[in-house]
Design a protein that fits this description.
The complex is a heterodimer of chains A (415) and B (247). Helices cover 69% and strands 4% of the residues of chain A. Chain A is mainly α and 415 residues long. In chain B, strand 4 and strand 5 form a beta hairpin. Chain B is globular and about 45 Å long. The chains are: A mainly alpha (415), B alpha/beta (247).
């Protein structure tokens, strides 16, 4: 697409946003008069305009020779003929809208959204284990806990920051996943579910009773993330500079949530992309084949040990990253956040969304969390409503909200 | 080439058991390069166990298994599959939720990483399957679980051929197929053999199997009771009586 066409394209979406957001957020009832404030709709429209341009530039960048080679490799040289669920520019629009949410969401809803996105991340991770590899894991929350505590303990004892904690906790959780994976390799179905359930409880009890290290039920503080070395708190710790002092602006207590939200959103988008590619790579096909028929897999020379372990480790690493985000967003961790109910909830996200379907999982995570908040008034009956929703779903959409779609291949010139 | 070099697969005094129950007793047989060899026998004689033992499930408790002169008795299952032996398991065992083409592509797993990434090779292998089973290829975007029994069998064979095996093991490929389909299937097997792939065929349908095979073995209660040229076995009175519904 040429630059002029891109500009036109972006302008069209910006204009549309302006048109939509003017009545929504621009007109305000002030006494008996309607006053028009332009800055908010203009900001939104500008954001969409710039976002669309950036998305298209990114798409363009991926076409460049060095990156194209990389992309090519990730596509494993198979041409996918069927139109994907959403074309690239629609993804761009969706992401831009998601990225502009902090501008108009209240702190309360922003935190709800952060939690929803964390659940989406966890759902995508568990989806690899349950949806793709077909290993029913009822103790997934253990890896989430490992990630969260890894960050909290790491910052307390090793001085680990948020950005180092991300890869560190992913590795830590992956190690735990592998450790759990070894003994359970021989098990299938119900037995596997029971062992993983036990593992989840063991981790929680360890955290609860290891009072000297983990603080036990009192929990541990988890520091806020820093941005390019600047702290997002009102008063910086030793030797740090708070963000608002550096830029000489007034302190905004929302900033921590906004930064976590944006980083989380970017990570979710990346994860979504990677999981989609993984499904089409040999390892992803091996996961699915293992779910379908283990004996056939072994007769085809697939090493079921490494394939199962890789699924466990990959799912665990993603769970660990979810935990880091959770700890950073809450500012505090304690064992009550990692009960079996959480595992059940994450599994519900995966099943509601549709086993194996990444899009469905993200939608289900949003639906469940937002519903959770909307039903706060009926908090005593929340689980009841939740259970009924599950039953209704199983009757009407047994394959989930967005059921998994198979990729179709064609023998193209590249194959 | 002397007799030693012609041997592709050799079993020497192989025993196997499920727990405490012995199934195979001192099985000795060999398959030469380019041959079609069939193993016939009644239900429960240990035919499928023999094929499974080749892949180490269950492991041979005694004896040696050699492939192309190389000892493979103790190799892990997935390593055996990478030696150049492909198995078409009993009951087909395709991946029902995946498309026909995904099933076929999973068949290249035993190849080296380099070969797997070679698009030309992959296209050639798919083309080969297409030429053998045009009917199957018409359905290459369909979920494998929606195929008919005959098509699923074709898929299982096609999937095994994707690894360019030197030895193709088939376990009861005619199981549950209509007579017309069985004839077509055996014609394809003969074609695969003519292209240079050695075939070791385990069958209950002894009549058909012996017609396409060069040599045959008769397995009774875990022991090789007879062996010989297929045509001789087909004419033999005992064999006719026991396995061919003979008159």
């Amino acid at each position: 697409m040429s630059i002029a066409a891109s500009l036109k394209h972006a302008a069209r979406w910006g204009g549309l946003t302006l048109l939509l957001s003017l009545p929504l957020s621009g007109w305000m009832l002030n006494g008996y008069q309607v006053t028009t404030t332009w800055h908010r709709p203009l900001w939104l429209a500008g954001g969409v305009f710039v976002g669309t341009l950036l998305a298209m530039a990114l798409a363009r960048l991926l076409e460049m020779p060095p990156l194209r080679k990389l992309r090519w490799r990730m596509q494993t040289k198979i041409t996918v003929t069927r139109r994907p669920a959403l074309p690239a520019w629609e993804w761009g629009v969706l992401l831009t809208i998601a990225a502009t949410l902090p501008l108009w969401l209240s702190t309360y809803w922003l935190n709800v959204m952060i939690l929803a996105l964390i659940y989406a991340v966890l759902g995508l991770g568990l989806n690899i284990v349950v949806g793709l590899a077909g290993l029913l894991d009822l103790g997934y929350v253990a890896f989430y806990a490992v990630g969260a505590y890894g960050y909290a303990l790491g910052s307390q004892y090793l001085g680990l920051g948020f950005w180092t904690a991300l890869p560190f906790c992913a590795l830590l959780a992956a190690t735990f996943g592998t450790v759990l994976g070894f003994p359970v390799l021989r098990m299938r179905g119900d037995y596997l579910a029971i062992v993983t359930l036990g593992f989840g409880e063991i981790i929680r009890l360890l955290l609860n009773n290891g009072t000297e290290i983990t603080g036990g039920p009192n929990g541990l503080p988890a520091p806020a993330p820093t941005l390019f070395g600047l702290e997002l708190t009102r008063v910086a710790g030793q030797g740090g500079t708070p963000w608002h002092t550096f830029f000489n602006v007034t302190y905004n207590p929302n900033l921590r949530a906004v930064v976590i939200y944006m980083v989380l959103l970017a990570f979710l988008a990346l994860l979504f992309f990677c999981v989609g590619r993984l499904q089409r790579m040999p390892i992803g096909r091996a996961w699915e084949a293992l779910r379908e028929d283990e004996i056939a897999c072994r007769s085809l020379g697939i090493n079921h040990v490494t394939v199962k372990l890789s699924a466990f480790a990959m799912g665990a690493a993603i769970g660990g990253i979810g935990g880091v985000f959770f700890a950073a967003a809450q500012g505090f961790v304690n064992p009550t956040s990692f009960t079996f109910f959480e595992s059940a909830l994450i599994l519900a996200v995966v099943v509601l969304g549709g086993l194996g379907s990444s899009g469905g999982v993200v939608v289900a995570a949003l639906v469940i969390n937002i519903l959770h908040e909307l039903l706060r008034e009926f908090s005593d009956y929340r689980v009841l409503v939740f259970g009924m929703a599950m039953v209704v779903m199983m009757i009407w959409r047994p394959r989930g909200l967005l059921s998994m779609r198979r990729q179709f291949f064609a023998v193209g010139k590249n194959l | 080439m002397n007799a030693e070099e012609r041997r592709l697969l050799v079993l020497e005094g192989v025993r196997a058991a499920y727990g405490a129950v012995p199934v195979l007793h001192d099985v000795t047989l060999h398959v030469d390069r380019g041959e079609i060899v069939t193993l016939i026998g009644a239900n429960g004689a240990g035919k499928s166990t023999l094929l499974m033992t080749l892949f180490g499930q269950p492991r041979a408790t005694a004896g040696r298994i050699l492939f192309s002169g190389q000892e493979m008795t103790a190799l892990p299952t997935h390593r055996i599959a990478r030696l150049g032996i492909a198995q078409v398991p009993e009951g087909r065992r395709i991946f029902p939720a995946m498309t026909v083409e995904e099933n076929l592509i999973l068949g290249i797993t035993p190849l080296t990483a380099r070969e797997q990434e070679d698009p030309g090779l992959r296209a050639a292998l798919l083309e080969h399957v297409r030429s053998l089973f045009p009917r199957l290829w018409e359905r290459h975007r369909q979920r494998a679980g929606t195929l008919s029994g005959g098509e699923q069998q074709m898929l299982a064979i096609g999937r095994a051929l994707m690894s360019r095996p030197r030895l193709l093991l088939l376990d009861e490929p005619s199981l549950g197929l209509a007579p017309l389909l069985i004839r077509q299937l055996f014609a394809v097997l003969r074609r695969i053999a003519a292209e240079g792939t050695t075939i070791f065929l385990v069958e209950q349908n002894a009549n058909q199997a012996l017609r396409i095979a060069d040599r045959g073995y008769v397995l009774v209660n875990g022991r090789i009771q007879m062996e010989g040229v297929a045509a001789d076995l087909l004419a033999d009175g005992h064999v006719r009586q026991a396995y061919l519904g003979g008159h």
